[in-house]
Design brief:
Strand order of the largest sheet: 1-5-6
Number of strands: 6
Largest sheet: 3 strands, antiparallel
Distance between the termini: 57 Å
Radius of gyration: 25 Å
Structural class: alpha+beta
Helix content: 55-70%
Number of helices: 6
Shape: flat
Strand content: 15-25%
Length: 237
């Protein structure tokens, strides 16, 4: 076996390993750690659109790619809409009942590291069987700065204050719901119930991160290109 044949064989094996093992496993993990109802809706929508548009069987690789695209779109829409998240949870958990929450307070802190943002842990009280219980929803709301490099202390404080003010407005407007499982006493806080909220969206955050990864090298190359061009022209003069 010559070198070219060896390289082709190695590439084919690596491609098979990635697309037949790694990619399906990653896809399975995404489905497992997200509401199964979204995957079911994606499958039904994909079958309907695929058959209607392409008028062919769904038993093909093309359909799997099409399903992946539809699922990604539905997941993105779900991630940016708190109202859809609440509706999905309420629909798939019909035994959970709404309970009135009181004394909602937010503890806002700055979280550094890879995702630089303000995070609000919201503590709330509710009554059940004539008793008052207190729960804390960790990482209930976030305020991403989307800074490319770093944040000053002033920007951190402004971000924290902005998030705290938003939480206070949501509470004053009663723009939240608390659902409780009557069997276990488990609760879940939904705040806010807006149609659109980008700051809490993992999909939007992923999109911004990808944009930063792509745009920063692009602008660096653009700067170097113009700098070299200007330097070269200056040398000629």
């Amino acid at each position: 076996m010559n070198t070219n044949e060896f390289l082709k064989t190695t590439k084919k094996k690596s491609d098979d390993f990635v697309f037949r093992i790694i990619v399906p496993l990653l896809g399975l993990l995404v489905v497992i750690f997200n509401p199964i109802s979204l995957f079911i809706i994606s499958v039904l929508a994909s079958i309907l659109v695929y058959i209607t548009v392409f008028r062919t069987t769904i038993f093909s690789k093309t359909f799997l790619y099409f399903l992946a695209v539809i699922y990604a779109v539905i997941m993105f829409v779900y991630s940016v809409s708190p109202k859809i998240q609440y509706t999905e949870f309420k629909t798939t958990h019909p035994n959970w009942i709404e309970t009135e929450g009181t004394s909602l307070t937010a503890d806002v802190n700055w979280r550094g590291g890879k995702n630089r943002r303000s995070v609000a842990d919201i503590t709330y009280q509710y009554r059940m069987n004539n008793k008052t219980f207190k729960k804390t929803a960790n990482n209930a709301l976030k305020n991403n700065t989307y800074s490319v490099f770093w944040n000053s202390e002033k920007e951190k404080n402004e971000s924290n204050q902005d998030l705290k003010k938003r939480v206070e407005n949501y509470v004053q407007q009663k723009n939240f719901k608390i659902l409780r499982n009557p069997n276990s006493g488990e609760t879940k806080l939904f705040i806010p119930l807006n149609d659109l909220l980008l700051s809490n969206s993992f999909g939007f955050q992923l999109l911004v991160t990808f944009s930063k990864v792509m745009l920063v090298p692009f602008f660096c190359m653009l700067f170097l290109f113009f700098w070299k061009d200007k330097g070269f022209n200056g040398f000629k003069k």
